[in-house]
User: Fold this.
Amino acid sequence: MATVPLISDDQASTEVLAVFDDIRAVRGTDEVNNFWRALANDPALLSATWSRLKEVMGPGALDPLVKEMLYIAVSVANGCEYCIHSHTAAAKTKGMSPAQHGELLSVIGMAMQTNGLVTAMQVPVDGVFEV
Amino acid sequence: MATVPLISDDQASTEVLAVFDDIRAVRGTDEVNNFWRALANDPALLSATWSRLKEVMGPGALDPLVKEMLYIAVSVANGCEYCIHSHTAAAKTKGMSPAQHGELLSVIGMAMQTNGLVTAMQVPVDGVFEV
Amino acid sequence: MATVPLISDDQASTEVLAVFDDIRAVRGTDEVNNFWRALANDPALLSATWSRLKEVMGPGALDPLVKEMLYIAVSVANGCEYCIHSHTAAAKTKGMSPAQHGELLSVIGMAMQTNGLVTAMQVPVDGVFEV
Amino acid sequence: MATVPLISDDQASTEVLAVFDDIRAVRGTDEVNNFWRALANDPALLSATWSRLKEVMGPGALDPLVKEMLYIAVSVANGCEYCIHSHTAAAKTKGMSPAQHGELLSVIGMAMQTNGLVTAMQVPVDGVFEV
Amino acid sequence: MATVPLISDDQASTEVLAVFDDIRAVRGTDEVNNFWRALANDPALLSATWSRLKEVMGPGALDPLVKEMLYIAVSVANGCEYCIHSHTAAAKTKGMSPAQHGELLSVIGMAMQTNGLVTAMQVPVDGVFEV
Amino acid sequence: MATVPLISDDQASTEVLAVFDDIRAVRGTDEVNNFWRALANDPALLSATWSRLKEVMGPGALDPLVKEMLYIAVSVANGCEYCIHSHTAAAKTKGMSPAQHGELLSVIGMAMQTNGLVTAMQVPVDGVFEV
Assistant:
């Protein structure tokens, strides 16, 4: 159970409904995920989060699929179960193949491992990295 | 200072030198970074880590630059200073532009933020993600 | 399922029952939460944890509600689901309003985001902070 | 060293200078910290982060000093050195006493400890928390 | 639900089945845990992970039970629920007594607490540690 | 620089000096590490932390060297630089050999890696673990 109520369309204020509608329009689906329904308890937080996320995750210098995979990488390191599920689903929708998923997992595992080794040994930063 | 000695070429065993030489050959540089010199205290760990990393980070279904950015994303969430420096340097060498770096940072920041919000609210996973 | 049995009142030793009774008295409830029943497998650990927690979370230079919110903030960053539920419930019992909860979430999200940005950019500490 | 250049006033675009000036005005100081100078490499990220932070950390249902302490709590759990320094300095500026600092530390330590204990024992969430 | 399918024996390729059989032989059980069935979607990742894990976790300079407890300690700090369950089960199989489990928990809790305190106070490393 | 002053013997109260003296006696050294000098700003926190740590890290069902290695494992996953240095030094003093250190590092790396893989794939806990 969530620590806040999930706001249904019926319970939503006009301000919240406007965000819900924009989510539906941008994503091309009727579904409004639980994350947004939870955030809707604080309309200012909902609005700020959605408008920034829409901007950050859209097309730009990086491919939207790459952005989803970066999101997964961060969420795994932070252990955010919901985020891993939602962004893995989004990555699949945006075309992530099983082979790409496998490589994503391999890189995450490798990074976790060497993060631990480097930190345990307290390796000093090489001068050549600092340019 | 590291918690283990950094093994110089002069101190390295034949087994370790062979790994150092492969690192130099694969990366096209004379430099062998401190991480490998620290791992060299345990030749089996050095060899296993390098051979796996070489395989994981090479070309495949994902672009090597994308892999470097995924590595950065994990390392940031884990707070691994050395790893952030080394893989940001590697990403720049592989062509990461300032615009791509900016978007990488924006995605990391966004993911960290929503990881925190989701976790704080303990949002239940939507049924639609589980396919 | 827990990795240790949850100790019921019937299974509890005299030493453990004394801690359970103190928990009931201090909190003004008959309920002894699962955390304490799990810790009760090691009476010394139970006793040390409860006596220190009682002291730390009581009134002092900081308001008990503020302490609950600080507890939530740490627990979110560590991803401790049980802790988030128990301390959010405690904060509500101590008077946390929906508006305060919303601001708590906003600060946590902001801190997570800038933690990630600062770490990714490896920003050097300003001299003015070090006083 | 940072992984991005720190943008001086001389190097800043008009858009970036406007944010720097607002930071100076809101904080009542000539100093613009390294964090903002690092973010300034991406003016959109700088602007979005500053405008949201200004809103979140200002007065509201929670006291600004409480917000600084919450920020410290999250930053400690995430191990963000820069953030700990900057927000501890800010908390002192906003009146955090040594006694309050000591209690903040005690709560952080207590939360970290019980986060670990709960997670290690995988304690199931009590029904009474879920209301 | 997992983000990848769990590969049954019937679905497994010859390469994957060979790893499953080695797992069964080394562990002396017919059971192949979900972790390996999930990894089996990427046979190279499955094979690399199993062969390295088998080597690392076997007898050596450290007792296999000590290695399981170290695994638990890392998994707790990272909040990996599955890993905590699987390695606590493995530690019990290898002879971890309730008293040893209690001390493991106490050390984890103590380390988490002082990690937080040290980080919050940004204590400089003593010269005597750096030898 | 620390966020609190480091208390010298000259600045210490009688209560703090008594703890410092006990640290010297138990550890058989004149050195009082910076961690204790930082905690000394809050005598109650200093005293509670030292008395509990002395109890937890002493001989018991687990060997003191094993406890130091567990401490390192947690501290690495939490990225606590000071703690890694201090407990690696303590482990060496208690007899950790280079071979043991190498295996400790290997287990930490392995655990970090599989923590990431398991979390990324959201592997469901096997029924056999739950006993």
